[in-house]
Design goal:
It is a single chain. The mean pLDDT is 96. The protein has 120 residues and is mostly beta strands. It is built from no helices and eleven strands. 32% of the residues are buried. Helices cover 0% and strands 60% of the residues. It has strands at residues 3-7, 10-13, 18-25, 30-39, 46-51, 57-59, 67-72, 77-82, 91-102, 105-110, 114-119.
């Protein structure tokens, strides 16, 4: 029942912007540490940005200053605002995080991913 679902991917021109969303469905009791990863064809999945339960953020060097991760605990969701997009940013973006499934149990989940394509 509980799962992560990404949305907001699409085609954008280089230099443009896009905002990705990741919502926890199935009514978990809360979200803890969360992150965005991405994976291009033939490449390993890489960490893009993370945000802790108390809002502390971290970014990969290649997106620092361009991307912003945020969270909305009331909606059990996280977001990734992507600005100044480059062709090398093209990838499937995945949401990952620790969800509070019940009052006394939590587990890690991966979303199915959303495709981001950047044209030059």
């Amino acid at each position: 029942q509980v799962q992560l679902v990404e949305s907001g991917g699409g085609l954008v021109q280089a230099g443009g912007s896009l905002r990705l969303s990741c919502a926890a469905s199935g009514r978990p009791r809360g979200i803890n540490g969360m992150a965005w990863y991405r994976q291009a064809p033939g490449k390993q999945r890489e960490l893009v940005a993370s945000i802790s339960a108390d809002g502390i953020t971290g970014y990969a060097d290649f997106v620092k200053g361009r991307f912003t991760i945020s969270r909305d605990n009331a909606k059990n969701a996280i977001y990734l605002q992507m600005n100044s997009l480059k062709p090398e940013d093209a990838a499937v973006y995945y949401c990952n995080g620790n969800l509070q499934v019940t009052a006394d149990s939590n587990r890690w989940f991966w979303g199915r991913g959303t495709q981001v394509t950047v044209s030059s």
